[in-house]
Amino acid sequence: MLQLQDRISSIVGCHCPGPCAKPLNTRVQLKLQVPLWVDLILTAAAQGIGRAAALAFAREGAKVIATDINESKLQELEEYPGIQIRTLDVTKKKQIDQFASEIERLDVLFNLASFVHHGTILDCEEKDWNFSMNLNVRSMYLMIKAFLPKLCPERHAQRGEVIYLGH
Q1: Is 50:57 a contact under the CB 8 Å cutoff?
Q2: Distance between CA 71 and CA 7 in Å, rounded?
Q3: For site-directed labelling of 166, which of 11, 67, 144, 157 has its Cα 20 to 30 A away?
Q4: Would you say 151 and 162 are in contact if contact means Cβ atoms under 8 Å apart?
């Protein structure tokens, strides 16, 4: 079986430098052969690539926990078989640690939460820079630190995967 990262690389079908005008279903295609035992946590799953990935993984038999800060959009995923939802702000250490304490094992941690300021650095306010660094860098550290013990090889036969797809 191909490495999970190789299979997931097919998620991003569009490499436009800016917002893409193509409908999401023509940009994002995911064809995986995911074993039924895969337990997956996805961040930023309420819309866009995160939503498409959650639906595709669930369709292929993975047990998906879709997380996002946008609770109303996230609830739309609850109706799909194989998807559980959880409101999560990946910039909040206490929320992440609480969530991790509830997870027994994990095969894939798929971090999609990210933010890029539009414009030049001269247009970027310090608060926007701080938000970007907090979401793009610090949240990855917090998520990986909290969930890495759940991904360790000695916990189950397969090696766990951490995937970061961001701007």
Answers
A1: no
A2: 29
A3: 157
A4: yes
CB of 45 closer than 8 Å to CB of 28: no
User: CB neighbours of 50 closer than 8 A, spacing ≥ 6?
Assistant: 42, 43, 44, 66, 68, 112
Contact by Cβ (8 Å): 167, 136: yes
- Full DSSP string of the chain: ---HHHHHGGG-----SS---S-HHHH--------TT-EEEESS-SSHHHHHHHHHHHHTT-EEEEEES-HHHHHGGGGSTTEEEEE--TT-HHHHHHHHHT----SEEEE------SS-GGG--HHHHHHHHIIIIIHHHHHHHHHHHHH-GGGSSSPPEEEE---
Residue 96 in tokens? 């992440």
CA 14 to chain centroid, in Å, comes to 18
Whole-number Å distance between alpha carbons of 118 and 91: 21
What digits encode the pLDDT tens for the residues 67-90? Answer: 999 999 999 999 999 999 999 999
Contact at 8 Å (CB) between 69 and 95? no
Distance CA 106, CA 93 (A): 19
Q: Kindly report the CATH number that applies to the domain delimited by 34-164.
A: 3.40.50.720
